Amino acid sequence: MISLPSYLMLSAVMFIIGVCGVIARRNAIIVFMSIELMLNSVNLSLVTFSAFLGNATGQIFVFFVMTLAAAEAAVGLAIVIALFRRKQTLNLDEINILKW
Amino acid sequence: MELIVFDILAAVSVVSALLVVTRRNPIISALWLIVNFFCLSGLYLTLHAQFIAVIQILVYAGAIMVLFVFVIMLLNLGDERRLRDALSWKKIVAVGLSFGVLMELMYALMMRGQQYPFDAIKATEIGTVEYIGSQLFTKFLFPFEITSLLLTAALIGAVVLAKKKFE
Known about the structure:
The complex is a heterodimer of chains A (about 100) and B (about 170).
Chain A lengths: L3 H21 L3 H26 L3 H31 L13
Helix pairs in contact in A: 1-2, 2-3
Chain B lengths: L1 H21 L3 H21 L3 H26 L13 H23 L8 H8 L1 H8 L4 H22 L5
C-alpha cells in the first residue's frame, strides 16, 4: 500500500508549483489556473487524510471546496472578461486601478 | 501494482502541473490542466474515494475547464503572446522562498518514521455515494443548503460582471 507521506509530498509539490505560477506568471488566466492547481492539491491532501483516518468529513469538505471552485471560476472569469473589455489586456502588471 | 499506478499518476500530474505554469499559450495550459485533473481523479481512486473521483472529472475537467477554454477562446488571446513574463528581483526571491517552503515540507514529511495503517475496507465504505450522501443530508444539511445560496450569488455575480455595460 502507498504510504501517507507520499500522497502528502505529491500534494506539497503540486501546491508549490501552483504558488510559483501565481508568483511568476503575468497572464491573468494562467494565474487563475494556478489557483485551481493549488485548490486541487489541497483537495488531494484532504481526501488522503479522510481515507487514512476512515472519516468521511474530509471528502465532504472536498465536495464543498469543488462547489466553491466552480463559483469562483464563474465569477473570476466574468471579472477577466470585464477587465479585458476595458483594458484590452490580461497583463496583471497593467491592471492596477486598485493600487494607490 | 498499486504502487506502480501511483508512481505513474504522480509523475504525470507533477509534469502536467509544471507544463500548466510554463506554457506561453493559455489554451495549452488549460489542456494540461485537464490532464492533471484526470490524474488526480485516478489518485482519488487509489484512495478508494469513488464519489470524489467521479465528481472531480464531472465538475473540474467537465464544467470548470469548459468555462476556462470558452473564455480563452472568446477573448482571442492569440496576439497576447508578446506578454513577456519579466523576471524581476522580487519574483526570483519569491520563487526561491516557495522552494524553501517545499524543502521544509519534504523534510517534515520524511522525518516522520511512524507508519499509518490504511484500512481499505473502511476507506471503500466511506468513499461510496451512499455513505457521503447520507452524511451530506443529515449531519451536513445546513452547509449543503448554504451552498445553493453561494451558487446563486455566483450566478448573479457572473452575469452582472460580464454584462456589456460594466462601469
